[in-house]
Amino acid sequence: MNHQNSNFFTFIAYTLIILFFTTYSTVEAQQRSTNISLSSSLTPDSTNSSWLSRSGLYAFGFYRRGSGYAVGVFAAGIPEKTVVWTANRDDPPVPSNATLAFIDGKLVLNNPQGENTNIADVSQSISTASMLDSGNFVLYNSVRAIIWQSFDNPTDTILPGQPLVAGKRLVSSFSEADSSSGLFRLEMQKDGNLVSYPLPFADPYAYYATGTYMAGENITLNLDDNGHLYLLNLTGDNIIQNLTAGESSNDGKIYRMTLNADGIFRVYSRTLDPKGNWSVKWYSSADMCAPIGLCGLNGYCIMIDDKADCRCLPGFNFINPQIWSQGCERSFAAVSCNNTKGGNITMSKFENMSWEDESYMVVELPNIDDCERSCFEDCNCEVALYSDGKNCKKQKLPLRYGRRSLGTSQVAFIKVTKEPLALPPKGTEKELRLEIVLIIGASLITFAFMVLTVSGFLIYRNRVWVYKKISEQGHIEVSGDIVLRTFTFAELEEVTNGFREELGRGASGTVYKGIIPYNQKVVAVKKLEKARKCLDWSRGEDEAVLEDWVCDCFEARELGKLVGHEEEVDKRKLERMVKVALWCIQDEPSLRPSMKKVLLMIEGTVDIPTPPSPTSFLSSI
Ligand SMILES: *[C@@H]1O[C@H](CO)[C@@H](O)[C@H](O)[C@H]1NC(C)=O
Ligand SMILES: *[C@@H]1O[C@H](CO)[C@@H](O)[C@H](O)[C@H]1NC(C)=O
Ligand SMILES: *[C@@H]1O[C@H](CO)[C@@H](O)[C@H](O)[C@H]1NC(C)=O
Ligand SMILES: *[C@@H]1O[C@H](CO)[C@@H](O)[C@H](O)[C@H]1NC(C)=O
Fold first, then answer.
1. From what superkingdom does this record's organism come (predicted)?
2. What digits encode the pLDDT tens for the residues 210-254?
C-alpha cells in the first residue's frame, strides 16, 4: 500500500469514527445545537447533564469530581472525557441534585446544599449560549455579541484557537483527579515573557521562561490545529518564538496544551479512536524537579528514573505522604541550645544539595569540615550549605525548594537530634514490644553503632570498668556477666570520653571522624573505594569511615585489627558482635533484623548468617 492510499484509509477511518460518535451521541443527548435554549437546564445524573457541541467532540455541563460534580468543558467524544475548563474551580463539588439553568439573564448553578453561584461573571444579560466545536463555551447578548467565553478565562489548558493573551495565566490543577487550583502558574506577562512560577510567588522564583521579555506588550501564546505552539507578536503579526515545530497536517488528531499538576506544561495529541489515548508531543522541561515547591517545606526533590521524588530531611516525616507539597514535619524534638552539650546531636551530610538561600550568616572557611563544625557548635544553626570551596552558609529551618541534583556541587549539613539511646531491658513481652517499636523507628542505626563501638570495644576491653563506672553514678547495678541494660546517651558519652575512648592509637581528630557515623547518612554519602582493604586505623586514613573499616576487616577475616593488640579478646564473641552490627546497618530496612532477633543473636541463641557487604550504601544515593 503506498503512502497516499494509507492516508486515504486513515481519512475514511476517522470519518467513520466521527459518524459513529455523531449517531451515538444523538441518541444519548438531544441537546446538540449551536444555540442553547435559555429554557433548558442541566442536572448531573440525567441524560441532560451537558450540552454538546455540534460534532459532539466537546461538551459543557456536569462532570464527576471526587464525591460529587463540577461544571466545565470536557472532551465528550473520547472515553476519558478530558476536562479542559472548569467553572469556579476552587468551589467544592456539588451533589447530584444540583441544577444548572438560565435565571434572569444569568447562568446559575443551584446547589441545594450550598449557595447558588454564577458560572460566568457577566454584566449584560445572556440571550443565547453556544458550545462550539473548538471547545469554546460562549455566551451572547441580545445582539449576538460575545459577552463571555471560556477561552478568555482559561484554567490549566489552552486549545487550538485559544490564545493566552498578555496578562493572563494558566494555573495548574491540584492533581490529575482534582481540578481545583494547584501549585504552579504559567503567565503570559505584559513584557512579552512567558514565565512559570510556583504560586504565589513571582521573581526571582521563575523556573521556566522563554526569555522574550523585550518583545513588547502584545504578545500571545498560541496553539494551532497541528500542535504548533508559538509566541505571536500581534502588532507585527510575526512569530517571536516557536516552542514546538508542529506537524504538517493533523490527520484528524486533536491537540491541547496543559500546565500539569507537576508544574511542567505539555502539548498533547490524540486521535478520536476510542481505544487511543493522549500522547505527549512536547514538554517544557525534562527536569521534573525544576518546578520548585513540588516538595514542600523541609523536603527535597530528587529525580529517580526520570520521575520526581520527594524526600524529607533526616529527622523529618511527611505531613501527608500522598501530598508532597505539604512538606515534612519533625519526628524528633527540635534541636535546642541546651542539647548541644548533651551530645544528642549529629550532623547529616548531603552532597549535591541546594535550597532557597535564607542564610543568616555566611562564613568563609577553606575546609569543609570546619563548616560542619561551625554549624554544629552554633546553636542558631540548623542547616549549612558549603559551596565554592569556601562559603559556609548557615541557615535556620524551615527549608524551601530543596533539591538534590548533579547540577550543584554544594554540600549540605543538617543538624539532627537523637533520642536518648535505650537498650531494652528484659521485661514482659508487651514491654519488650513497645520498646522494640520505639527503638526500631528511631535509633536502630544508633544502636547498631553502639553495639559495634560499645560492645566491640568497650565491653571486650573495659567491661568491668565501664559497668563499675556507670554503677558508681548510681544508675544501674553491676551484675556478674554482661546483661543488656538501659543507659542514656549522656552516660555512654561520659564513660567513653565523648566516644573517643581507646579507639586506638590514632590522633583524636581521626578517631572523632571514625566514630561519628552513628548517623548513617554521614556514611551513606561517603564515596566508597571499589577495592576494599582492611585499613590500619592507626595510620589515620582520613577518608575511611568506621563502618567501611569494620566491614573490610570482617571480609578480610582480620577482626583482630579492630581491637588492636589485646590478646584476651574472645574472637568468636567479637565476630558475633560485628556480624550483628553489620546486619543492623544494612541500608535496606527490610534486611535489618528485629530487635528481638538482635537480642537472640547477641546472646548466641540463634546462628547469625554472614551479612551482605554494605555496598548498597552507594546505590541509595
Ligand atoms: C442561533 O441564533 C441566532 C440568533 O440568535 C440565529 O441567527 C442563528 O441562525 C441560530 N443558529 C442556529 C443553528 O439555530
Ligand atoms: C440533595 O441531596 C443531598 C444528598 O446528596 C440531600 O442531603 C439533600 O436533602 C438533597 N436536597 C434536595 C433539595 O433534594
Ligand atoms: C512586534 O511588531 C511591531 C510592529 O511591527 C514591531 O515594531 C516590534 O518590533 C515587534 N516586536 C518584536 C519583538 O519583534
Ligand atoms: C517558526 O516556525 C515557522 C514554521 O512553523 C517558521 O515559518 C518560522 O520562521 C519560525 N519562526 C521562528 C522565529 O523560528
1. Eukaryota
2. 999 988 888 999 999 999 999 999 887 899 999 999 888 888 899
